[in-house]
Every structure is written in C-alpha cells, then in structure tokens.
Design goal:
- It is a single chain.
- With 89 residues, the protein is an alpha+beta fold.
- It has a single domain, classed as Alpha-Beta Plaits, CATH 3.30.70.
- It is 11% helix and 18% strand.
- It has a two-stranded antiparallel sheet. It has a two-stranded antiparallel sheet with strand order 2-3.
- Bound molecules: iron/sulfur cluster (2 copies).
- One iron/sulfur cluster binds next to helix 1.
C-alpha cells in the first residue's frame, strides 16, 4: 500500500471562515509609536488577520489571530510584542 502524509483539513486563509482566536496563549500587541508602516507584518501573517487601518497603520483582528508570532519576528522595528492572553492570578 502506498504511504503518504496525512491530509490536513485546513487551508491557507481558513481562519477567515474559522475563528481561531481562542487558540492563543499569547497575543501580539502593536506599538504604533515604533511602527514605520512597512507592511511586513501584513505580508507575512499566515492568517491574513492583519489589516490596514484608515490612518495607514496596521491592526490585528484578534478574532482570527492564532498567536503564531510570525508578525513579531518579521517586524524590523520591534513594534510588535507577544503578551500573555490571560494574566495568571
Ligand atoms: S500572531 Fe501575528 S502573524 Fe500570527 S496569526 Fe496573529 S497576527 Fe498573524
Ligand atoms: S512590520 Fe512592524 S513596522 Fe512594519 S507595519 Fe508591521 S508593525 Fe509596523
């Protein structure tokens, strides 16, 4: 019998339809005073849950953000940090 990798029941942009915000342990938080509007976070977010705001800055759609941290890694200005989703007692 031929073996293959297991099929995955999700696809790119799946969180547009499936809200995965509840998966997060940490959430990305943007500091607009450091942001230069380069758009790299928007480009690399695998869930396309970063969108351009009306003032030219970017904002995170937390309903869909799964907290992978890629936006933090690609930001050249260190304008995004990961913070605990729920502060422990
Ligand atoms: S952590 Fe950043 S890159 Fe990852 S899903 Fe959330 S907004 Fe997108
Ligand atoms: S990657 Fe960083 S500097 Fe660039 S738009 Fe996003 S938050 Fe701003």
């Amino acid at each position: 019998m031929e073996e293959h990798a297991p099929y995955i029941a999700v696809s790119h942009l799946s969180t547009v339809h499936n809200k995965t915000g509840d998966w997060r342990a940490e959430k990305p938080v943007m500091n607009r005073t450091k942001c230069n509007k380069c758009s790299l976070c928007w480009t690399y977010c695998p869930e396309t849950c970063i969108e351009l705001d009306t003032d030219g800055y970017y904002r995170i759609l937390y309903e869909y953000c799964k907290g992978c941290g890629i936006c933090v890694e690609v930001c050249p200005r260190k304008a995004i940090t990961m913070e605990m989703e729920y502060k422990p007692d």
